[in-house]
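Whiteboard transcription, Tuesday session. T.W. wrote the structure tokens on the left side:
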């Protein structure tokens, strides 16, 4: 299960570092001690895998940097303004688009996220989609180990999780064309048939 992220101020990063290196150090510090649902994998593995996926599709350094820090605002004690100060406006804009809004009931929070991504830039869609793909890959691996027990890790269970994945898939298909969408669709199809 997830543990709390590092508290306190984030380390200062040298301005001579490129934005990807600064983002990696930012994420490494923010996610310190945090693990993924269902196992003891350090949480930092997730944003790194999202970033690798985007790098493999030749996205810009700003997109890769945003992938590295995409969860620090909603999952850690990090203010969105810290992203802009450390990594610049472009990374800030992407992360702001893909951050779930706190303080809303689950369904409303998911709908607000979906609207934000639908209206967001291609860069934000790319980070969201790569995030969804890696989350689904991780979910599938967990399911292969634990079967039906996998759904107990999610407050709303399989049905609501599938509803959200299908909603996001429809948004990506309606608003963008990219090979990653086919990859995501395959994973959503798997989820439909998993018991």
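and on the right, the sequence the group agreed on:
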């Amino acid at each position: 299960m997830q543990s709390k992220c590092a508290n306190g101020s984030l380390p200062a990063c040298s301005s001579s570092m490129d934005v990807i290196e600064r983002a990696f150090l930012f994420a490494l510090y923010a996610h310190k001690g945090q693990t993924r649902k269902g196992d003891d994998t350090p949480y930092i593995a997730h944003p790194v895998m999202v970033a690798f996926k985007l790098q493999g599709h030749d996205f810009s350094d700003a997109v890769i940097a945003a992938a590295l820090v995409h969860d620090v605002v909603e999952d850690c004690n990090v203010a969105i303004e810290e992203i802009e100060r450390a990594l610049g406006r472009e990374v800030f804009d992407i992360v702001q688009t893909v951050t779930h809004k706190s303080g809303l009931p689950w369904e409303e929070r998911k709908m607000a996220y979906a609207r934000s991504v639908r209206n967001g830039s291609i860069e934000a869609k790319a980070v969201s989609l790569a995030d969804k793909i890696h989350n689904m890959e991780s979910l599938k691996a967990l399911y292969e180990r634990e079967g039906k027990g996998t759904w107990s890790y999610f407050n709303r269970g399989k049905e609501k999780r599938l509803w959200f994945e299908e909603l996001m898939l429809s948004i990506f298909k309606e608003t963008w064309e990219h090979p990653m969408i086919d990859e995501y669709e395959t994973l959503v199809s798997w989820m439909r048939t998993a018991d």
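Someone added at the bottom: The chain has one domain: 19-193.
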